[in-house]
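Figure 3 (text version): structure tokens given as input.
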């Protein structure tokens, strides 16, 4: 049986969040970034299953077999483009655990993200990947995506400061 035959992508459930947090830590390490916060699962639970309706964030998980083996995830949220004067879906993460890449699971995760964009009435998805991640770049190019070159900045803020 091929990986795609036994793989299934579905929206994350509360019980999946420790696995998603673990994958996020693997993803951060893979991209040579700082690890996520220790309470990431709790933070995701608030974003996904808290009071906001509809939830601002969507997370999809890729599982193999009977569902006890989550091997990847994708997360996305709507954003606004001032230049275009419209909304788009920002895919924040798409990650597959090592050993599960190149098996047809990535397109299943992308299909879930595309379906989420369409369900929200959004006509575009944007995302980023490190310039050194040639495998991801080839994958996205095969999907028909077009790259734009920019640098992404992050400015940490102390939310407790006056």
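Below: residues designed for each position.
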């Amino acid at each position: 049986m091929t990986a795609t035959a036994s793989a299934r992508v579905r929206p994350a459930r509360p019980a999946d969040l420790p696995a998603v947090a673990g994958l996020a830590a693997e993803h951060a390490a893979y991209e040579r970034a700082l690890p996520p916060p220790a309470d990431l699962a709790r933070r995701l639970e608030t974003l996904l299953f808290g009071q906001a309706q509809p939830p601002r964030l969507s997370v999809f998980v890729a599982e193999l077999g009977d569902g006890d083996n989550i091997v990847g995830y994708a997360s996305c949220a709507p954003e606004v483009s001032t230049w275009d004067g419209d909304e788009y879906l920002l895919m924040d993460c798409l990650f597959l655990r090592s050993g599960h890449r190149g098996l047809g699971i990535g397109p299943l995760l992308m299909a879930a993200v595309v379906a989420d964009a369409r369900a929200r009435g959004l006509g575009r998805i944007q995302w980023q990947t490190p310039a050194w991640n040639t495998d991801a770049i080839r994958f996205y190019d095969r999907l028909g995506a077009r790259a734009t070159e920019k640098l992404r900045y992050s400015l940490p803020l102390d939310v407790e400061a006056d």
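Helices lie at 3-6, 17-30, 40-49, 105-119, 134-143.
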